[in-house]
Amino acid sequence: MDTPSPSAEVRGPSGDAFDLLAIPPAFGLDLAELSERHRALSLSLHPDRFAGQSAAVRRAALQKAVAVNEAHRTLRDPVSRAELLAARLGLAAPAGPESLEFLEHVMELREALAEASQARDEARLVGLIQGTEAERDRASAALVVLLDGLVSGGHPEAMNSPTSAVFEQIARLRYAARFLEAARAELDDLS
């Protein structure tokens, strides 16, 4: 078996998940390309490839494999990916809570979920899920414009108030993920 060079496989770019996976930083990244890059790196770091190497090289390969897996998880998750990009751009999360309008919307959705669940109203639960999926998709589309515009040198729509706009959409994305998980669990309980 041909063993890889420790410098070629184990060492490599340091930095965040984008750097580790050698993926250009973007919110709207190609998930198939991400998975392919992860697979290729995982194969190159497989323990069998380092069986004849020293304990230090095997340990370094294992540590890098763990880091590659964590980087993949980070970039696959839209909220984590958005937060990482915001950090790369030097955007700091606002200290205060989300807008009052958004918080009211969250409360209304939670109440609607509780009512639909209590009434065992499957159609209402499906409607809440579909509506929240649409909200999640709108937040994702807004983050593509905002974050990818900033990464590429500044998109006019992104430059007016990038920090608040970015973190508002991240909050919407985060909430949608949590709400969808809860609503789908309620729907599963009805089955």
Biggest sheet details: none
Instruction: Supply the CATH architecture of the largest domain.
Output: Up-down Bundle
Instruction: Summarize the helix and strand pattern as letters.
Output: HHHHHHHHH
The count of helical stretches stands at: 9
Task: Report the principal-axis shape.
Answer: globular
Structure report:
- The chain has 191 residues and is mainly α.
- The protein has 2 domains: 6-76, Helix Hairpins, CATH 1.10.287.110; 100-190, Monooxygenase.
- The chain contains 9 helices and no strands.
- Helix 5 packs antiparallel against helix 9 and helix 6 (100-118) runs parallel beside helix 9.
- The termini are far apart.
Provide key terms for this protein:
191 residues; 9 helices; Monooxygenase; Helix Hairpins; disordered N terminus; mainly alpha
Strands, helices and their partners?
Elements (H helix, E strand, L loop, with lengths): L5 H4 L7 H5 L9 H14 L10 H22 L1 H11 L11 H19 L3 H30 L4 H4 L2 H29 L1
Quick structural gist:
The protein has 191 residues and is mainly alpha-helical. The protein has helices spanning 6-9, 17-21, 31-44, 55-76, 78-88, 100-118, 122-151, 156-159, 162-190. It has nine helices and no strands.
